[in-house]
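Margin note from the TA: students keep mixing up input and output lines. Inputs are the sequences; the output is the structure of the whole complex. Example:
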Amino acid sequence: MPGSFFSRRIITQKTAPWIFVSPFIIVFFVFFLYPLISTFVMSLQEIHGPGDVTFIGLQNYRALANEQFAHAIMNSAVYTILTIAILVPLPLVLAVFINAQTTRLRGFFKSAYFLPALTSVVVAGLFFRFAFSAQETAFINKLVATIGGTPKDWLFQRWTTMFVLVLFCTWRWFGVNIIYFLSGLNAIPQEQYEAAEIDGASPFQRFFFITLPNLKAVTVYVVTISVYGGFAMFAESFTMFGSARSPGDIGLTIVGYIYLEGFNFARLGMGSAIGVTLFVIIMTVNLIQLSFTGTFRKKGN
Amino acid sequence: MTYHNRSILIQQILKYMVMVAMSVFALAPFLFLLLSSLRPGAQMVQNGLTLDFDLRTMSLEGYRILMNYSEGLYFNWYTNSVIITIVQTCVSVLLSSMVGYALAVYDFRGRNLVFTVVLAVMMIPVEILILPLFKLTILLKIIDTKAGVILPFAVSPFAVFFFRQYSMGIPKDLIDSGRIDGCNELGIFFRIITPVLLPAFGAIAILQAMGSWNSFLWPLIVLRSNENLTLPIGLQSLLTPYGNNYDVLLSGSVLSIIPIIIVFLLNQKAFITGLTVGSVKG
Amino acid sequence: MSDPQNLTSNGLSYKQAGVDIDSIITWDDYFEAGKKVVAKTGKPMSTIESTEHWSYYPLISQQGSDFLDKNGNGVLDNDINVKTLEFLKKMLDANVVITAPAGFHHSEEYWSFMNNSGAASLWMPLWYMGRFTSYMPKLKGKIVVRPLPVWKKGGSRSAGMGGTGTAVTNQSKNLDLAKRFLAYAKGSKEGSIKTWTVLGFDPIRWDVWSDPAMKAPNIYTDYFGNGVFDMLVSIKDEIGGINVGEKYPEAVSIVQRNVMFKVLGEKSATPKEALSAANKLLNSR
């Protein structure tokens, strides 16, 4: 039924877009902009309770010069670098394998690799925490023993913990990245490969000179989301250690530190200061990334 | 066998070895959890996670305990997760599609500004905002409620981006024909456009459902009472510093991943579409 | 509950080593006996926590020290605290004690380790008895509960570690009823007796400790024998208290993370270094 005379007056072509866009505007202002500004404001305060707020200037930021924050930044940075180092090449190679014309059972492999991404981080964390349990009978230690190594107290030392966390992240996300790379591979025009074969290029040459360059856009995208994912990591560490606290802070990440200060110690001001710092880090990374891709585009792609 | 054929064979073998190894890597944890859920929880305490396949100690006892746990608390968690997932998915898909459509189809003053804002929101991880959002939900009295979980994320910038992309392919004649027929703009959207957007709805709905079902950080902060928890948070609450309830935890975990796996297996194409639109264009 | 700290000893290991449990009076005696146990059985005398504070706090409290002073300021690096931590380190270095598997006594790894008689003894608050009955069934009947060794002859044989507080908030809809219920549940004689028979905790009321119900058969007496409360009564005046203030949670957290882990776990700092740095951090908050 066509709209009524009344509704045709209000919902015109001029006003309709605003009506459509209004849900986003409202959510943006209430649940994004206001909290964002609030984070900055709160970071300059000491908050004891609703209404019991003191302005303390940059004191929270000065208090960030502590060992715990240093651990958090180190852990988040190392984690991000390691995950990118693994979660870009590995899925890329697997995507190439799956995409190869001679590969059978493509559907099975794609599904199998993607399945981990479907599990809740709690369930996955459960597996990794107990598989890497310090007991000698636990799965990984048993495996290590059969190949002649010594059982380790995995979640108790700095580097073994990082290893388990990176492994956890890899398990969960490599399938997703494979899907991204697969779609990128699909977009590569066949003619390029055919031309190369006529010229006698080997599979390796084809890979390096056709496949990789064509995947640049996808790779940039994957690296970008991996950077966010890395610096914002919280749940994986939380579910493995059972809380935001870990022995000697070996599992503490930046967001974990926000949670710790905000919820374990009820220091909302301090937590907000950490949040602002994370914001600055992410924005810096964004700017670096934008300038890189911007430069490439200017140089004529 | 010629040299060429032999090297191809070796390549193939290596390729499959790697692929199969990665499959085992991906699937093994599921097998473990399933097996462990069929054993008494106390065994996890004694031995950690193992690959024992001792039929004698296996039983469905863990599942029985789960059903009776704390007067059906697990069912509360399950229903909470289901309700939140369905509501959040519907709300997000609907609202995001409206925004994306408008950005694509209407040339209005402020269009570029809004789109830039969408991009900006996408670039900033929500983790930065958890503390003030927490205060806000208390203020709005939606703490510890499903509304508190859903509202802050009622519109997804990623989905908006996706719908905008998709809507840019809608032929203008379609919209014009609607206007000629006398529909107002909203009518056009709901009657004419939505059928065209169905595949997009499907893809985003699936991704959103997966995200909602597994969502961890925000529900952890907003939900407080035992009965209001969603599955991931509820399961996590079984792990206390002073002792873990493995019988419930293991069987509860296994049951929690079944729905989403089923949804996935039935809709693989939709998942993939939803994931990849953002990536190829960058 | 007042969380008195006690020593539980695995009688079997002691017999093997030829040590008489009741001859251990001071911590020095304990150290010597420990060397014998390790030499004869290969097992450590005890485990200590490197990510929690239960192995350390009661030992300083016995000597009248604490994390905070009466005004709530941190005193983590006073003489007694430093000396006590050095003593723990000495035992660790001599392999008389080892750090608990996974760092603390509430880990699956520890329970499995101890269930298989991994160590000869353990010192934890009394409520830890419930962990033995729940997670270490193999040790039933083999564990006895004793007071802590003393530092100097005539010193305290136990320490009060605080306990659990329960509060009625003033948003409660039935304030008066809630208060009366709480008083009844925790403070009545009946409630106190059930605190033991059901939860295995020592109840708040001392007058209940000599009640025959404390000796009546339950899972705890089956496991540990029925002399637990006789022992408690004999040391009841030696259970001190602790200073609790605003910095208390932070102090505990800092000790666990910066002191215990660094000195005993990672071995990356000496007791004096770790405690002074920790105290500076605590008092700067």
